[in-house]
Amino acid sequence: MIIYLSPPRRDDTLTVSKSGDVLVVNGETFDFSKVGEGDTLPLAAIKSMWFSGDVSRTDGELSLTLLFLNPWNYSPEQAFPVPLKEVPDGAIALPKPLPNNSEIRGVIDWSQLITASMKAKAEVAAHLQAMKTALAAKNSTAVIQISRIQDRINTIGYGIEAGEATPEDEAEQAALMLSLKSWKAYKFALGKVTAQPTWHASPVWPVEPAIPEIEASPMSRTVDQA
Question: Are residues 141 and 204 in the same domain?
Fold first, then answer.
C-alpha cells in the first residue's frame, strides 16, 4: 500500500492503522479489499472527510491519499510529506510536529539585517550627495551672475567706445566691475571648498556677493516696462 498525505492546516488529530487492505482512520474502518487490479474507487464513494482523491490498485498495490492535518507547530516533514510506501500492518507512524515548547524559534533571514555601521555609512553617503548638490547649485548661480554682469559691462563699453555713453553709464560700469570682481573671487573660493579639512561633514561656504540690479537686463524688465 502507498499512502499519500495532503497537508492542510488544521488542529485535528489523525491516527491511522493498517491490516492488509483495511485502514482504520480515527476509529472508522475502511475495507478496500474489493478494489481489484486496475480498478479505481472514486473519492465520492468514500464517505469520510479524511480521504482526498481516488483509491486505485496498480501492480497489486493500493494507493490512496489521506488528509494529513498540520498543527500550528507543524514540522517540515509535515508540511512536505513524502509518500508512505510498503506500509506494514499495525499503527502507521506519521510525521511528527515540532516540540510544543518555548524553544521553538521562527526562521530569520539575517542577511537582511541593517547594522548600525550600514546606517552610518548610508547617512554619510546621503550627506555627501547633499553637499555636492549644494556646491553645484552655488557654482551655477556664480556662473549666471558673472555672465550677466560681464554682458552689461561689455554693452556699456560699446557705448563708451562710440562716444555715446553718459556719465551715469560709466558710473554703472565701474560699479559692475567691482561686483564682477567679487563674483569671480566667490567662484574661485567655491573651487577650494572640497579641499577643506571639514569637507564634506561641515564645509565652510564663502559668502555669496550681492546680486547687482541691472535695469537694462531683459530679466529685470516687467511686461508693463516693455
Answer: yes
pLDDT in single tens digits along all 226 residues of the chain: 887 787 777 777 889 999 999 999 999 999 999 999 999 999 999 999 899 899 999 999 999 999 887 887 888 888 888 999 988 999 999 888 887 654 555 678 788 899 999 999 999 999 999 999 999 999 999 999 999 999 999 999 999 999 999 999 999 999 999 999 999 999 999 999 999 999 999 999 999 999 999 977 655 444 454 4
Q: Which amino acid appears at position 40 of this protein?
A: T
Assign 3-class secondary structure to 107-176.
CCCHHHCCCHHHHHHHHHHHHHHHHHHHHHHHHHHHHHHHHHHHHHHHHHHHHHHCCCCCHHHHHHHHHH
In a domain, 97, yes or no: no
The closest alpha carbon to 194, from 183, 205, 208, belongs to 205
Domain that holds residue 209: 116-219
101 lies in a domain? no
pTM above 0.70, yes or no: no
